[in-house]
Amino acid sequence: MRAVIADGAGGPEVLSVGELPDPTPGPGEVVLDVVAAGLNRADLLQRQGLYPPPPGASPVIGMECSGTVAALGEGVTGWSVGDPACALLAGGGYAEKVAVPAGQLMPVPDGVDLVHAAALPEVAATVWSNVFMVAGLKPHETFLVHGGAGGIGTFAIQLAHQLGATVLTTAGTAEKLAACAALGADVTINYRDQDFVEVVREATDGYGADVVLDNMGAKYLGRNVDVLAIEGRLVIIGMQGGSKGELDINTLLRKRGAVIATALRSRPVDEKSAICASVVEHVWPLVSAGLVRPVVHGTMPLEDVAAAHALMESGEHSGKILLTI
Amino acid sequence: MRAVIADGAGGPEVLSVGELPDPTPGPGEVVLDVVAAGLNRADLLQRQGLYPPPPGASPVIGMECSGTVAALGEGVTGWSVGDPACALLAGGGYAEKVAVPAGQLMPVPDGVDLVHAAALPEVAATVWSNVFMVAGLKPHETFLVHGGAGGIGTFAIQLAHQLGATVLTTAGTAEKLAACAALGADVTINYRDQDFVEVVREATDGYGADVVLDNMGAKYLGRNVDVLAIEGRLVIIGMQGGSKGELDINTLLRKRGAVIATALRSRPVDEKSAICASVVEHVWPLVSAGLVRPVVHGTMPLEDVAAAHALMESGEHSGKILLTI
């Protein structure tokens, strides 16, 4: 099969399309004929050699895809060859075929075409598991999501808005902030010239944010704790601003707050399967109803993988970048 | 009534017994004739002016007591004048009488005398709410509690042991470690000459601690995160080792861990009442069965309050210090 191969670790130029053996489905696994694969920030880190795939995962980059079922492994029920599906992967998405545990396969929501379905698994599973399953965001709570114009951000804004939360978000340009507002953000903050702690406090009459979803890590740690409401939960899922930050335990204690750092990819298959089942139950109905939609920046053919990575690194995209096979 | 009065903020010598007006029960409150009051580390901070009582609370020190019901406020049901009880207080325990919301009143468990019952409310509510309700310690998980010989520590060891967890604890002398082992600690660690991270890893075959209960704050932050197991929860309830520490978010993220800092005293009455109800349901049966007992260092008369504070500051006690009225 054709698949993206990396010539060592480095910039986008190390990526090219080559030939690899077809995967075969192990017990409990399904092989998909891939139609499209979504790009994620973790893919850039993996390319740079900073985020090795978990043990047993494909060395091929790609944590989500859509496609049709090509083969079923021993013991798989509920799926048939030819079924359209999208999948949360531990790796291997940038290829013509990929093997995936059946629990990480999800149906394509009504009204979403098969290519755009590749934009859903990572963002839906990440946002649902972290914001709702881990941090327990409730209707009428306030939710601050950083990087509102990205793949995670655009999805988190829509989902939290639909579920009744007040949504505040940060981004770096007026165009991106307008896009966030159109998706349902109640308050938009330009991090280049506004202090998000001040803006959130003003907008909430001093209350703060019940849940913060952060991709900046150390750089925002102090201010994210400052902005928490009483019993607030800060969930860190990225470290674009470094990994070692000062934690003011006294501030956290006065707020009875929690700092949670988590990742989806390293979780065991049974946890990922439980998350996917919960996503299908709770998130897919909103997607099928057209209330939450995958925000796609654009699609590029698999052969343009290096250009796709360069685009993502530029930060000039808004929403998901997809590779089509 | 007689009550402990503080002559400004400072050392134990600022405390003495004086006269204050009797409290009257507001709606939903009960007034207790106090028999004994428990000392807590927060009392020392309050005396030093570092931990002001929450808004509306008595300025008199004392966060727990035992006694008999003296008067019922409007709307209180389930209690009668003369009933023995113990209570979780926002303040006011070092006195002949105290007013408390009825939800923070608990019956005295079978087999515990009324004086010793004053040693229970804070430790039981703190340990149960933080280790079990917040951190969700489960049977067969591993639990590390720092300061195993203190009031919180001795109770946490017993409760976690009885509920089926593997218990590891730190203390500073061989005598204290032996006392911890006798209460049910599986592994005891002398923090003066052993690295608790190494000892916990060795004792758990590299697994680590599912839950850490910490009273040291900044000083232990890095090592507490290091010692966490995958999906481990660090609960910080004290800052005896400072408040500003470096958090390695990358380590926390690889573990999908949580750092929670919390306090009991500042919680609203309805949360405290829910905690007390849960303690009565889950913890009191173990106390009544003699499986978990309050560890009391000794009792001293109210007039010796300054000496009692000096003893607690010395760290030479093991278990709770009680003032008798």
Q: Per CATH, which architecture of the largest domain in chain A?
A: Alpha-Beta Complex
Mean pLDDT of chain A: 96
By CATH, the superfamily of the largest domain in chain A comes out as: Medium-chain alcohol dehydrogenases, catalytic domain
Quaternary assembly: homodimer
The string of secondary-structure elements of chain A, in order, is: EEEHEEEEHEHEHEHEHEEHEHHEHE
Shape of chain A: globular
Query: Under CATH, the topology of the largest domain in chain A is which?
Result: Quinone Oxidoreductase, Chain A, domain 1
Question: What is the number of domains of chain A?
Answer: 2
Radius of gyration of chain A: 19 Å
Profile the largest sheet of chain A: 7 strands, mixed
Percent of residues in helices of chain A: 25-40%
Total count of strands of chain A: 16
What percentage of the residues of chain A does DSSP assign to strands (E)? 25-35%
Low-confidence stretches of chain A: none
The DSSP helix count of chain A reads: 10
- Classified by CATH, the class of the largest domain in chain A is Alpha Beta
Helical/strand content category of chain A: alpha/beta
